[in-house]
Write a structure and sequence with these properties.
Layout: H1 16-31, E1 38-39, E2 48-49, E3 60-68, H2 72-79, H3 85-97, E4 103-113, H4 118-135, E5 138-146, E6 156-167, E7 182-187, H5 196-206, E8 214-215, E9 220-221, H6 222-226, H7 234-243, E10 248-251, H8 256-262, E11 269-274, H9 282-291, H10 295-299, E12 306-312, H11 317-326, E13 331-339, E14 347-350
């Protein structure tokens, strides 16, 4: 049977008015991220950034990255907490950009929902805007897409893309690393935004834990622990680069500590990281025990308490650690750079974590 009423976008599940209201609600948060180089306001077809600001560079290199936050969004959905996931998104994008020594300039976001709830979308953007402030970049635009039929009314996902700039002769990376350099670890705020498919499977499905459940080892509820925002290191890394000689950074994300560190190690060298130099947070032990997950599996999936690493010459270690401490970053010497020798990979973990 067919209806006498003509079809419409609203009848198909897309609410344009709700989308417009979401834009109005998010404007105040986006405004807080503006840099002097940003032209125009929210609502245009494209975000505008005054590239004449790059004239002060002799040979500017633009660095770009794009990412999402994975299945961590499902934790936010279940708890009905939407104003922190944006921090995760900015961290995943901008901390990749700062690795090469680039200054974060601006980013755009993409929010896909099953149904537009204006206040919910605005809360997500609020978190993204707050993250941009912490990273020192502008949020110049984005897109909110409503996909009824593909996503449930409460389902959503987020993604973002960012751009930064670095002077050619200040580009950081493998070419600068030398034998004898030290590897400095910077503490993570928690799980960050990787490995949540494993974490959700182990804790929620296999162990039957509830997000509202208080876990004594964590000192708070499981949900609060799993939603802890990813630490944004961008401004800390930029400040460190200005203060001390830095050869490379490594953002510890999917693949774990050794695999990500290996990405910035030249072929003829090897990085060793001593587990005895730090104790991973309680959440890592909880996941390991609850799922009987072997240590190597944990280490290639989770960050194990380290979110960023810096490779610096030995003579810069004290200055670097002091600079990070002054900014409130928990950091320590975790390893060193050696000749490749018989090692078959670019980085490896040695020793054992303190009991």
């Amino acid at each position: 049977m067919t209806s006498d009423t003509g079809a419409s976008y609203a009848a198909a599940g897309v609410d344009i008015e709700a989308g417009d209201r979401a834009v109005e609600l998010m404007k105040e948060w986006v405004k807080k991220t503006q840099r002097p180089e940003v032209l125009g306001g929210l609502g245009g077809f494209a975000g505008l950034f005054d590239a004449s600001a790059l004239k002060r560079y002799e040979r500017p290199l633009l660095a770009s990255a794009t990412d999402g936050v994975g299945t961590k969004v499902d934790i936010a959905r279940q708890l009905g907490v939407y104003d922190t996931i944006g921090h995760d998104l900015v961290a995943m994008v901008m901390d990749d950009i700062v690795v090469c020594g680039a200054e974060p300039l601006f980013m755009t976001d993409y929010i896909c929902v099953g149904k537009v709830h204006p206040e919910r979308v605005a809360a997500i953007v609020k978190g993204i805007a707050e993250g941009c402030v912490l990273a020192g970049c502008a949020l110049v635009g984005g897109e909110t897409a409503e996909h009824p039929g593909l996503l449930g009314p409460d389902d959503f996902d987020v993604a973002g893309a960012g751009t930064g700039v670095v002077e050619y002769d200040r580009l950081l990376g493998a070419d600068r690393i030398r034998t004898g350099d030290s590897v400095i670890a910077m503490a993570a705020s928690g799980l960050h935004s990787n490995g949540y498919s494993l974490v959700r499977h182990v804790l929620l499905e296999r162990a039957g834990m509830r997000l509202e459940q208080r876990v004594e080892e964590l000192g708070r509820t499981l949900g609060e622990e799993l939603l802890e925002p990813t630490k944004i290191y961008s401004l800390d890394c930029m400040a460190l680069t200005r203060t001390a000689e830095v050869h490379a950074y490594s953002h510890i994300t999917g693949g774990g500590l050794a695999a990500n560190l290996a990405r910035v190690i030249p072929d003829h060298l090897h990085a060793t990281v001593d587990r005895a130099t730090w104790t991973p947070g309680a959440i890592f032990d909880l996941v390991g025990k609850a799922g009987q997950v072997e240590q190597l599996e944990l280490e290639k999936t989770l960050n194990m308490g380290v979110g960023m690493m810096a490779v610096v010459p030995q003579e810069s270690v004290d200055v670097a650690l002091t600079a990070l401490a002054d900014r409130g970053v928990d950091a320590w010497v975790a390893g060193e750079i050696l000749d490749r020798g018989d090692h078959t990979t670019g980085a490896s973990l040695t020793g054992a974590h303190p009991a």
